[in-house]
Amino acid sequence: MTEKRTTTRRSFLKQTAAAAAAAWAGPTVVPSSVLGADGKVAPSNRVTVGIIALGRQSLARNVPVFLRWPDSQIVALCDPDRWRLELPHAQAVKRYGDTEEVKALKTCPRYTDFREVIARDDVDAVMISSPDHWHVCMAIAAAKAGKDICCEKPLSLCIADGRLLADTVKKHKRVFRTDSEFRSIPAFHRACELIINGKIGQIKKMHMAVPSWNKALPQQPDMPVPEELDYDMWLGPAPKKPYTVQRVHPRKSFGRPGWYANQDYCDGVLVNWGHHLADIAQWANGTERSGPVEVEGTGQFPPADGLWNVLLDYKVRYRFANGAELFYTTGKPFIRFEGTEGWIDVQYGPDKLTAQPASILDAKLGPDAKRFPLKNEKRDFIDCVKARSQTMEDAEVGHRATSLCQLGYIAVEVGEKLKWDPKAERFIGNDAANKRLTRPPWRKPWTV
After folding, report:
1. What is the 3-state secondary structure (H, E, C) of 281-326?
2. What's the average model confidence in pLDDT over 312-327?
3. Are the CB atoms for 85 and 60 separated by under 8 Å?
């Protein structure tokens, strides 16, 4: 499934420049799209993207967005499941028709090993949509290779790895976008702008909930590895375990994957889905680059020896240095902010924004107010890659939202009220909790 690279991005641009020069010197006709005319974007101004992983999230939300913009171009596809490698083009034809961009996707190089994507000279950026256990390894490898990175949430499986990722991205001066779309949803965006500009006064309490999707499942019988799946590559840095379909994802379909409920690959809804609302809470509270100072929680665990073994239901309470409290549980997804001068509530799916007093929602923001652009998260990424600027949810902000959720998981595991130092990213006076800041030492030598 691997294609050898025959033309680098650099040589392609040199060829384009030479063709343009020849057009001025003689009768050779150069297509106007090469020069950026007729509304087309010149190749030199396009951000070339390698798509790493082609699960349902990638095909539904990631590939189509990068494909539809004239200033981004998908130049490589990667997934250890070979069946998935042929899907983007067929879906793109249904969505957009047989356009020039869609035809290019048909012949796009395909790989089962992400390292071959980041080794390409013609890849400016990568979109990482893999299972959670791969995020840190892939993102750090991409940063070291000089690629900009858009990475699905949550960023890591432990706080220590998230810190390593954020520091590596900063060291290599890469543009990074944590791929959570909630800052791009108008209701959440409006709520945060109003709160940040003081329209409910000082925040006293926040409440949020996420769907309760996780279930218990006992160990399943070993199964033959499907011929289309590079299972060793799918496992990557995770422990070597026998294949069974409920450990990975449904074969040749897109039902909810089993890896979502196994701690080798994911921490379940508390961290994975919870990242969305944790980021909104941190943003509105002014702690998006910090975190709480106290956390405690209770919850229900499935049998530890089961295949699906992540926390099921839970209740977690956080306290921040400014006195605000956050209460996090399972239920219909929403977030509510209660302040000294009123409250704002945002329901998710369908999105609904309410407030008390209702006049809060009609408040006008003055010329000196803090304003934030409302744009698609991947549009934000592409714009910042071109401008070499900071995204709306960079690696540090994404790490802090992920770690907020991870702190809750640890508090439930330890079963005690924990004091947290957000600057040092250590628990105060609790060795058992601090041991959970890192993952077990089962990483392979070729990973970070």
Report:
1. HHHHHCCCCCCCCEEEEEEECCCCCCCECCCCEEEEEEECCCCCEE
2. 98
3. no
Residue 324 burial by CB count (10 A; 0-12/13-18/19+): exposed, middle or buried? Answer: buried
What does 167-196 look like in DSSP terms, one character per residue?
HHHHHTT--EEEE--GGGSHHHHHHHHHHH
> What is the CATH architecture of 9-181?
3-Layer(aba) Sandwich (3.40)
**List of residues 6+ apart from 371 with CB closer than 8 A:** 193, 365
The reported pTM is 0.89
Cβ atoms 209, 316 nearer than 8 A: no
Task: Compute the distance between CA of residue 395 and CA of residue 301 in angstroms, rounded to an integer.
Answer: 30
Convert the pLDDT of each residue in 79-91 to its tens digit. 999 999 988 888 8
Give the Cα separation of 80 and 66 in Å (integer).
21
Q: Tens digit of pLDDT for each residue in 6-28?
A: 333 333 333 333 332 222 222 22
Q: Yes or no: say if 393 and 178 are a contact pair by the CB < 8 Å rule.
A: yes
Would you say 336 and 431 are in contact if contact means Cβ atoms under 8 Å apart?
A: no
Segment 173-179 mean pLDDT? 98
Helix spans in 122-241 (H) = 135-144, 159-171, 186-196, 231-235
Residue carrying the six token digits 């309760």: 212
Q: What is the pLDDT of residue 236?
A: 94
Q: What is the pLDDT of residue 39?
A: 55
Say whether 182-374+394-448 and 9-181 share the same fold. no
Cα separation, 216 vs 205, whole angstroms: 32
Task: Tell me the C-alpha distance between 331 and 345, whole Å.
Answer: 15
- Spacing of C-alpha 336 from chain mean position: 23
Does residue 441 register a pLDDT over 70? no
Domain 182-374+394-448 fold is Dihydrodipicolinate Reductase; domain 2 (3.30.360)
Please answer whether residues 221 and 322 qualify as being in contact, where contact means their C-beta atoms are separated by less than 8 angstroms: no
131, 214, 377 from 268: Cα distances, Å: 11, 7, 23
What is the residue extent of each domain of the chain?
A: 9-181, 182-374+394-448
Side chain identity at 220, as an amino acid letter?
Q
SS3 label, residue 427: strand
